[in-house]
Amino acid sequence: MLRNEVIVRFDKVSFEYGHHNPILHEANCSVREGSKITLMGQNGAGKSTMFHLIMGTLHPESGGVHLRDGLTIATARQVIPRAQMELTIREFFETCFKEKIYNIDPRIDEILEVVNLHAPHDRIIKTFSGGQQARLLLASALIQDPDLLLLDEPTNNLDKAGIAHLTKFLVDYKKTCIVISHDKDFLNAFTEGVLYLNAHTHTLEQYAGNYSDVVNEITKRIEKENRENARLAKEIQENKDKANFFAHKGGQMRLVAKRMREKAEEMEEAKVDIRKEDKTIRSFAIPSQPEIVGEIAHITSFSVINSHHKSIIKKVNITLKKNDHLLLTGPNGIGKTTLLESLARGTSKGAHIAPDVRVGYYRQDFSTLDFDETVYRSLASIADNLYEEELRSTAAGFLIDETLMKKKIEALSEGQKGLVAFARLVLQKPGLLILDEPTNHINFRHIPVIASALNRYDGAMILVSHVPEFVAQIRIDQIIDLEKSE
To answer: Which domain holds residue 377?
Structure first.
């Protein structure tokens, strides 16, 4: 076996979902053994589809995906399927293998140590926090010891310690991996090449360098293309103006006018379309419920899970009024998501939310969305007597076009589901905003826009996020560290 041989090759691969949703068009790329590659592209561009093509769960309509003979592949998905939530840890890992593994318990212990998670093998998957489930997803790929590791947003829901643990693992990893992620610092730590899925041309562009190097290179190229477009637009208009002037002169001047029109047409064809994948969501604001005054929420106690997996009650005295922003911190598994859910549902014994307060809840697994609804119905159902034009304008600001409006939520990428969730918050006008890891799956270009909107939100807000750079852009008035609170 040759070191650095090509183990995956896309040869003029074309693939589309139906006739109106092309993903790849004659795409070419190659991945060498031992390389660590980032797969980049806009939300919905087809990054997860690329993984399915490599795995063989989807097949190209033309061209070929060529794998080295005997290549073993494993993938860490973004989320655990709902059908597997009732499984025990042991049963979950057994699904990773086609044949029964008789010594699976020691292998589970070994791989849980790698992802820094300790739990009995008969514990049910749904009882784990989002961050712990992310570690289980990673472990489910690693336990297979594949030649090629495919990781889809592996840092989502991971706390700082979890990300550091995963980063060290990938830095030391000797085999091949391809990673989809929007975490810049995480990717820069180990990436040595980038595959860029161009959502406009539906082709693959291959770059050497880390994530930031490639983002800078692409940004400079877009700026250059925009300058060239501006120059051509100016010349086109000048030629049209001259053509119109000479056309009225008659005789030979009409031939001159014709040549100028032809030159203007040539320059129109030379213009470069702005790349769809480089579009960013529009600046937006989440309006707060206008009629709410005084105390919106009051938290006196909450339950956390300690290091011995026991539930304990901690006392606090937090009052939230309009324009109060509260940050909840703590490691994976301590109970942040459980606390947020109980607050959103009004079932928390240690918290009181004022009557008639609308609660806008952004949940990290998007289970607040009805996956069987179309995007349009999902937005329309929460819009209170809003004109159709306003609804569609709000959707467009989050890059939700007419094609996406007709799709069911379940057909969207995870990033697109996140944008739908934010559009719903804008339409809902909540008095209390509860956000659980709102940057998960979101394209890095959108994150500053989202941070700015949250920073300006003038209702009460409770936020959980493990992304320090994101939190730093938002005004925080109070912090509860669930691990350290008395």
So the answer is: 297-481
